Amino acid sequence: MPLPRLMKGGAAVAAIAAVVLVLRAVPGALAGIALFEVAEVRVEGADMVPDREILEWAAIPDSANVWDDPEAWEAAVAAHPVVRGVRIRRDLPSTLVVEIEEREPVAFVATPVLEPVDLEGNILPVDPSRVRLDLPVVRILDRTGGDSLPSPHRLRPPVEAVARLRENPAFHVRLSELREEPDGSVTALWGSSPSLEVKLRLPVDPARIEEGLEILEYELSSDTTATPRYLDLRWEDGVTVGRGAG
Fold it and tell me: Which Pfam family, any one, appears in the UniProt record (predicted)?
């Protein structure tokens, strides 16, 4: 290879290395400039948790500079039980923005008080006076006899069932409760005055719900005086519409 080409190649590599070194040094250098001292910290994405609570968890010191490494502050906010994800970005010259993604409540779990729970089974400490939630209630069997809160692993199957039922909006909108049964099945309370008991196997199959509702509609159309009490969808070979105790 000709010497001039080698020299040009070496110069280009050196130039790139110099730029990388400058970029790495810039935040440290700018962190000492008063212009970039943090004057405001703003929270975005917090609906269920007050902004001040997120700021308390972040614990960004008054002496902070927008070019400081935010990793420790992000980790502190990420530990909040309602926070799924967090990113702290700079809004130059002197503002930090704490962007959070909250966990989504899927149902209430009766502990015995009603507490919101997400898809992973995490109980979310949400102030009911701050945010109004209209969610089905999950009631689980007490298999421990203790007073401690159920673990996420314990709550996840029935909560996932509620989430699957959202795939049928017409059913989910009238779903008031889902309770575990001793045989491993679940009973969904659908509608009101009185509720129709819909008996299901886990995992819930939304297509099975659709099939059951079609049969229920047919039954009601053929006998307008009927008052169904339960709809049994536990068995693959049939659907039972009951007019008495299930």
Answer: POTRA_1
- pLDDT value for 116: 95
Helical H runs in the chain? 3-30, 51-58, 71-78, 152-165, 169-172, 206-222
Residue among 115, 110, 116, 125 nearest 180 (CA): 110
Show which of 80, 102, 124 is a domain's final residue: 102
Please check whether residue 38 is in contact with residue 96, taking contact to mean a CB–CB distance below 8 angstroms: yes
Question: Is 30 within a domain?
Answer: no
Query: Mean pLDDT, the chain, as a whole number?
Result: 85
In a domain, 65, yes or no: yes
Q: What is the CA radius of gyration of the chain?
A: 28
Averaged pLDDT for residues 58-69: 95
pLDDT category at 218 given cuts 50, 70, 90 is confident
Q: Residue 79 belongs to what domain range? A: 42-102
Q: In the chain, count of helices (H) and strands (E)?
A: 6, 11
Cα dihedral 86, 92, 94, 100, rounded to 10, equals: -10
- Residues 183, 215, single domain; the answer is yes
Percent of the chain with pLDDT over 70: 81
pLDDT score of 187:
96
184-189 long-range contacts, CB within 8 A, separation 24+: 185/234, 186/158, 186/161
**What is the Cα 165 distance to its own chain's centre?**
16
Residue 168 falls within a domain, yes or no?
yes
Length of the chain: 246
Query: H or E stretch including 105?
Result: strand 105-110
